[in-house]
Design brief:
- The chain is an alpha/beta fold and 216 residues long.
- It has helices at 13-22, 41-51, 66-76, 89-99, 115-119, 173-180, 200-213; strands at 4-7, 26-31, 56-61, 80-83, 102-109, 127-132, 162-164, 184-187, 192-194, 197-198.
- The protein has a single domain, classed as Alpha-Beta Barrel (TIM Barrel), CATH 3.20.20.70.
- The protein has seven helices and ten strands.
Length: 216
């Protein structure tokens, strides 16, 4: 099985098409007004409709209320809810139960001790997405284009359903996959020219480089 690739933070039909054309397995839409990749429910619905049947759709949320999740789920019919806030294991499980979608929980990694947080989510969520710990005072809890030390995952049970994220690029994804033994990778900033503007050539290069890295 080849490496599964998710391209996140798509906000325009043209770059969404570029991700689909490059063969992305999943595309991600961000609902977080502080993000340069934020899309309204209407825009998210338009983009999700373009992707349907061609790639799975992930909806990225940060401590969203049931009302907002409900509105976005109705509008986009996502396959995955990617939680990037302070959602507890109980909240992750609750969202999965209420909305009947796969739930991925982002866990920030800066040191080995941070792996303990992931242990709390293996049952509550379908997958744990490892991202870099955001810098102090950062506006965004993710999408900062920062990588963490992939060696931190080297001792993780490879059967654990995790997603490798944070600061990946077409240039480093091959090494990241090999070191972390990742089966799924996720990128946003690394395929942009400036924050929020995706680059079709870098998207294609990322998918090629990720596929070339596996399976192992
Ligand atoms: O992309 C954002 O703006 C964002 C906002 C809030 C939470 C998470 C966000 N991005 C996600 O973070 C990871 C890593 O991104 P990057 O490749 O380091 O830029 C990825 O899932 C983004 O979609």
């Amino acid at each position: 099985m080849s490496i599964e690739v998710k391209i996140c933070g798509l906000s325009e039909p043209a770059t969404l098409e570029a991700a689909l054309g490059a063969g992305a397995d999943l595309v991600g839409l961000v609902s977080f007004p502080k993000s340069p990749r934020h899309v309204s429910p209407e825009k998210a619905a338009e983009l999700a409709a373009l992707a349907r049947g061609r790639a799975r759709v992930a909806l990225l949320l940060v401590d969203a209320s049931d009302d907002l999740v409900g509105e976005l789920v109705s509008a986009t019919l996502p396959d995955v809810l990617q939680l990037h806030g302070d959602e507890s294991p109980e909240r992750a499980a609750e969202l999965r139960r209420i909305f009947g979608r796969e739930v991925w929980k982002a866990i920030p990694l800066g040191a080995e001790a941070d792996l303990a947080a992931a242990e709390l989510y293996w049952d509550a969520a379908d997958r744990v997405l490892f991202d870099a710990r955001p810098p102090q005072g950062a506006e965004l809890p993710g999408g900062n284009g920062l990588a963490f030390d992939w060696e931190l995952l080297a001792n993780l049970d490879p059967a654990r359903p995790f997603v490798l994220s944070g600061g990946l690029t077409p240039e480093n994804v091959g090494e990241a996959v090999r070191v972390a033994r990742a089966k799924t990778v996720d990128v946003s900033s690394g395929v942009e020219t400036v924050p929020g503007v995706k680059d079709p050539e870098r998207i294609a290069a990322f998918v090629r480089a990720a596929r070339a890295a596996g399976p192992f």
